[in-house]
Amino acid sequence: MKTSNNLILSIAIIINTLTSCDDNKVILYNNSDTTDYTINTGRKPSDYNAKIPGLNAQVIDYTLPNEYQHKSQLFPDTTLVMSWDAAGFKNANAFLKYFKQIQLLVRADKKDELAKHINFPSKNLATKKEFLDNYDKIFDEAFKYEVLNQDPNFMFRNSLGALAGHDGQMWFKPKGSSYTIVNISF
């Protein structure tokens, strides 16, 4: 069994070496205690601290161009998402800064401020009053966890906008020179 695992690893390394002409490298790491192989994009599993990169952990250099502004992005779970441009976001870094502000409002439970960023009526909320009256029910612990722990570098996006949260908690779209929340799913 160990020989077949080593053979698989050797073949994967050879294929990776032959095809790694650009920045699309995939690096395989073998955990010798198990037969599992981890596909990673540069960090060894032992270097990963297992924290979810959310509001406090994620650092983005907004002065650098977003590498996925003009090209599609492949997520670690093999989801392929369209470029920020194709999703309608002409400046990904400006949107990511905006999203950080939304996370801060959610964390501080500033529902009145948050309501200013929602495009009413939305699919699930007709009015600002309805949103404010149901805020505590909508923004329960699980909902907040999903929004606050959203890694901005891995926001799903398509022609409907950009998504925060694993289960589609908040959808965003550009609006004029800023952005707006177009749907809150609860």
Number of strand elements: 8
List SSEs in N-to-C order. HEEEEHHHHHEEEE
- Domain tally: 2
How helical, in percent, are the residues? 25-40%
Account of the protein in words:
The longest helix is centred in the N-terminal third of the chain and has 18 residues, at 2-19. By secondary structure, this protein is of the alpha+beta class. It is built from 6 helices and 8 strands. The chain folds into 2 domains: 1-50, no CATH class; 51-184, no CATH class. A 4-stranded antiparallel sheet has the order 5-6-7-8, covered by helices on one side. It has a two-stranded antiparallel ribbon with strand order 1-2. The chain has a two-stranded antiparallel sheet with strand order 3-4. The model is unreliable at 21-53 (pLDDT under 50).
Keywords for this structure?
186 residues, alpha+beta, 8 strands, 2 domains, elongated, two-stranded antiparallel sheet
Task: Explain the layout of strands and helices.
Blueprint: H1 2-19, E1 27-30, E2 37-40, E3 73-74, E4 80-81, H2 92-107, H3 111-115, H4 128-133, H5 135-138, H6 141-148, E5 156-158, E6 161-164, E7 170-175, E8 178-184
Antiparallel strand pairs: 1-2, 3-4, 5-6, 6-7, 7-8
Short description:
By secondary structure, this protein is an alpha+beta fold. Helix content is 31%, strand content 17%. It has six helices and eight strands; from the N terminus they run H-E-E-E-E-H-H-H-H-H-E-E-E-E.
